[in-house]
Amino acid sequence: MRYENIGGLQIPRLGLGTWRLGNDRRADSRSLAALRAAFEAGYSHLDTAEMYADGHAEELIGQAIRGLGVRRESLFITSKVQPSHLRYDDVLRSCAASLKRLGTDYLDLYLIHWPSPGMKLPDTFRALNELVKDGRVKHLGVSNFDLRLLKQSIELCETPLLTNQVPYSLSDRRYAANGVLDYCQRHDILLTAYSPLDEGRLNISPALRSAAEARGATPYQMALAWLVAQPRVITIPMSLDPGHIRENLAAADMILSDQEMKKLS
């Protein structure tokens, strides 16, 4: 696994997204099998949120960690506070609930999941900064923030803001076009790409297909390798298929040539 080194941290360039985990509680055994496959493959970076399956995704992750005896200190766990919980007291309650569901006493990274109309960011960051001071959260970030909100968050965060998590893929480059990617790269902030395969609907262009065939890789692996080859970009593909989970992780170790990057870009 290749890592991104930032602010004294080593963060896996590819983690496991969990946004569909636990949506159907009748399929919990499949969700737990997917998590087991991820841990066995070598994943250590997990991304979740209180919004995912109304907290059940966090419960399943906690259950898997305990059931498999995975050491907490070997993991990098991200969770997120939802837009309706951005008031000071609600942020503290949301974090406490996430920690309880995960069965841990700290989060490595805690994000504002989405900006909310009328939100008072100073109030939100007052709570987030307090969580860091108390040790319940190690690092802070945001998600789905445009450049204006990202800059405001940096000013309010008492520790270096670690990431802005946004949709980014070969076919979705909104956050490159709006200046967020360039700003993050120039100011030592991670851009965490979610939906890197367009939720399984990645457009496989002739260029992508030929590049994958030349590599003996899948188009999906090439699309992930293209992302993590970029400075300060990491990604969190989601899958419940053990085979895809392993393939995704292997993509993080692929080193693309300048010619391949140019062809895909």
Structural class: alpha/beta
Tell me the fraction of residues in β-strands, as a range. Answer: 15-25%
CATH topology description = TIM Barrel
Q: What is the level-2 CATH architecture name? A: Alpha-Beta Barrel
CATH class: Alpha Beta
Mean pLDDT: 97
Provide keyphrases for this structure.
TIM Barrel, alpha/beta, 265 residues, two-stranded antiparallel ribbon, globular, 17% strand, eight-stranded parallel sheet
Task: Describe the secondary structure blueprint for this structure.
Elements lengths: L2 E4 L2 E4 L3 E2 L10 H14 L3 E3 L8 H13 L7 E6 L6 H15 L4 E6 L8 H14 L2 E7 L3 H10 L6 E5 L6 H4 L2 H7 L3 E5 L11 H10 L3 H10 L4 E3 L6 H10 L6 H7 L1
Parallel strand pairs: 3-4, 4-5, 5-6, 6-7, 7-8, 8-9, 9-10
Antiparallel strand pairs: 1-2
